[in-house]
Amino acid sequence: MRNSMLRSIKSLTTSPSSHVLRRGYASEAVPERKVAVLGAAGGIGQSLSLLMKLNPLVSNLALYDIANTPGVAADVSHINTRSEVVGYASDAELGKALEGADVVIIPAGVPRKPGMTRDDLFNINAGIVKGLCEAIAKHCPNALVNMISNPVNSTVPIAAEVFKKAGTYDPKRLFGVTTLDVVRAKTFYAGKAMVPVAEVNVPVVGGHAGITILPLFSQATPKANLSDEVITALTKRTQDGGTEVVEAKAGKGSATLSMAYAGAIFADACLKGLNGVPDVIECSFVQSTVTELPFFASRVRLGKNGVEEVLGLGPLSDFEKEGLEKLKPELKSSIEKGIKFATQ
């Protein structure tokens, strides 16, 4: 999927006849699709806005933030690809940004800094997410919502409760974006297995924080005979990937670039699903009956209504079974925290 997205971007932006393609694209081949990015002027948001501008499936790109959005929108709008870009700033313009959106991506909120716990993050970001979701329920209740704002294990349940209260909740249309965990797992696995990273696939299940992230290296392809010690180390590195970047940036930011890339990959999958492309499968944190928990990340088949099918976990190694039982109490607590916040 990643390669096909990059190929389509490349062909659209570098082909000698790209101006012809751009002019005729919407009417001849691909439906009109509006994507709204909420938090577009932030660390993730700016890079994500750039990547969505490069996606030929997007015809209308709405960039929203509380400040500085006109500049980001002007900058991104100069890129010679299909989509028209409009920037929106302040609460007063949020409704216009959302109106008619097919996909809404939410990277809004504060990033994690060294020493910050996910509780610290929750206290700030929960209120931001709640307000944005109230606006989504009002202005584009049928949009696919891609939640990037952390902690995802709590912000997705917050969104669900807000939509339930508004009478617009459709579990098929709400996604926690866990794609960065998959991106990391693929990268780290490829390095140890000595295989081309473009050919690697690794399902990642559970949640999107610390030990709730469970990469299923026993199901990784291509197969490699890695030792138990290596699998344990790869699992820990995948779980601690965010902290690794926060520490490396030494207080100057978090995983903004890789998260923007992962967010763009997942949004592309959602757009392909909406457009009827068959067998689009990505991991995502969604309402689920895969375990006893109400939300859980696993592989999901995407289609014209969002989630077409939540796929099961498949066979797990003993190490993965143990990891699954260990993550459940923490994930349960994070989900309940989000629900409690939204229903107070």
From TrEMBL:
Going by the record, the broad EC class of this enzyme is oxidoreductase
Instruction: List the Gene Ontology MF annotations in alphabetical order.
Output: L-malate dehydrogenase (NAD+) activity
Predominantly, its location class is mitochondrion
Question: Which residues are the signal sequence here?
Answer: none
What residue stretches are annotated with the Lactate/malate dehydrogenase C-terminal domain?
A: 178-341
Record-level GO BP terms: malate metabolic process; tricarboxylic acid cycle
Query: What are the Lactate/malate dehydrogenase N-terminal domain coordinates in residue numbering?
Result: 34-176
**Where is it located?**
Mitochondrion matrix
InterPro entries membership: L-lactate/malate_DH, Lactate/malate_DH_C, Lactate/malate_DH_N, Lactate_DH/Glyco_Ohase_4_C, Malate_DH_AS, Malate_DH_type1, NAD(P)-bd_dom_sf
Presence of keyword Transit peptide: yes
Q: Where is the active site?
A: H208
Q: Which residues bind NAD(+)?
A: G39, A40, A41, G42, G43, I44, G45, D65, N125, I148, S149, N150, M259
Tell me which EC number(s) this protein carries. Answer: 1.1.1.37
Which family is this protein grouped under? Belongs to the LDH/MDH superfamily. MDH type 1 family.
The protein's assembly and partners: Homodimer.
Q: What is the protein named?
A: Malate dehydrogenase
Q: Which organism is it from?
A: Populus trichocarpa (Western balsam poplar)
